[in-house]
Amino acid sequence: MGTVATFYCVGTTDTKLEELRFLAETVRSSLATFSSSSSSKVEVVIVDVSAGQKETESLSDFKFVTRNELLLCYSKSVGGNPIVLPDDRGAIGL
């Protein structure tokens, strides 16, 4: 059984979702071409780092990490309470 190489495309899905999908698909297809002759597999994950009101909950064609999942994971790693982002993008203070 081969290994799985995971690549992360990180960006703001509230304003750049189509660009992230394009990037992720390009990475996935390019790397699949290189790994087609090996037992290694390629996985592409889109990670949302948006600060706006519009939330993307899931993507059907890629594994996806929501901003809430990312913030919860960070909060747990530093032993703090869950982080809630403010409504104003310019007012982020973690």
Tally of separate domains: 1
CATH architecture: 3-Layer(aba) Sandwich
Fraction of helical residues: 25-40%
- Assign the structural class, choosing from mainly alpha, mainly beta, alpha/beta, alpha+beta, or little secondary structure: alpha/beta
Low-pLDDT segments, ≥5 res: none
For this structure, the CATH topology is Rossmann fold
Principal-axes shape call: flat
Strand content: 15-25%
Q: What can you see in these coordinates?
A:
Helices cover 36% and strands 20% of the residues. By secondary structure, the protein is α/β, with parallel strands linked by helices. It has a single domain (4-84), classed as Rossmann fold (3-Layer(aba) Sandwich), CATH 3.40.50. The radius of gyration is 16 Å and the shape is flat. The model has no long low-confidence stretch (mean pLDDT 82). The N and C termini lie far apart (42 Å).
Short description:
Pfam families: UPF0261 (PF06792). Helix content is 36%, strand content 20%. By secondary structure, it is α/β, with parallel strands linked by helices.
Give a quick set of tags describing it.
Tobamovirus_resist_UPF0261, Rossmann fold, alpha/beta, 3 strands, 94 residues, UPF0261 domain-containing protein, 2 helices, UPF0261_N
Helices and strands in order:
Elements: E1 4-11, H1 13-35, E2 41-48, E3 63-65, H2 67-77
Parallel strand pairs: 1-2, 2-3
Protein name: UPF0261 domain-containing protein
InterPro entries: Tobamovirus_resist_UPF0261 (IPR051353), UPF0261_N (IPR044122)
Pfam families: UPF0261
